[in-house]
Amino acid sequence: MIYEDEKFLIPRGLKHRYFNFDDEPIEFLLAVASWKNSNSIIQSREDENRAKDEPELGLSIPSWQGKYPFSPEEKKPAVLRKQDAISMIYGREPDEIRCYIYISTDEITLSDYWICPGAKFSPPDIHTGDEFYYVRKGTLILTNPDTGRTYEIKKDEAFLIPKNIWHQGFNFGN
C-alpha cells in the first residue's frame, strides 16, 4: 500500500497497473528519463562552459545520481518515503529551492521541488533524457531561454520537456 507523500519505484520491464501568480509556494513532481550516459549530462550553461574551458574538471555529477536507492544491479520494487529521500538545495542564492530526490536510477529520476514566491530555478538547465513535471500546488511559469517560449502550468497539470531542451521555472507570486 502506498500512502500520502510516498512514491513508488517500478523497475523497467516489471508489469504493473495502476512562474506562479499565487502567494503560495509551487510544489511539483519531476521525473527525468535515462541517466545511463551520466558522463555526458549537461546540467547548466555554467557546466557546459566549464566542460569546454576546463575539460580536466569535467561536470559536477552527484555521487547518488543513477544509483539511489539501489544500484542498477540491485533494483527491485520499493516504497519510497519522504523521510528516506535525499534532501538538497538546488540553484544559487537568492533563488535556492528545496528538493527531495526519491529515485535516481540508470533509467529515471523522480524529485519533488518547491519554488518560493518570487524565486526561480537558476541557472537554466538541460537534460539528456525527457523530463516530466506535474504541478501539485501553485502555477509554474516555464521558459526556454533559447527561444523565449513560455508556458504556464497550473495545479494538477503536467508538462513534458523533451531531452536537450533548455528550460527554467519561475514563481511570480509574492
UniProtKB/TrEMBL annotation:
Domain Cupin type-2 intervals: 117-171
Transmembrane segments: none
A Pfam family hit: Cupin_2
CDD domains (UniProt xref): cupin_RmlC-like (cd02208)
Protein name: Cupin type-2 domain-containing protein
Organism field: marine sediment metagenome
Lineage start: unclassified sequences, metagenomes, ecological metagenomes
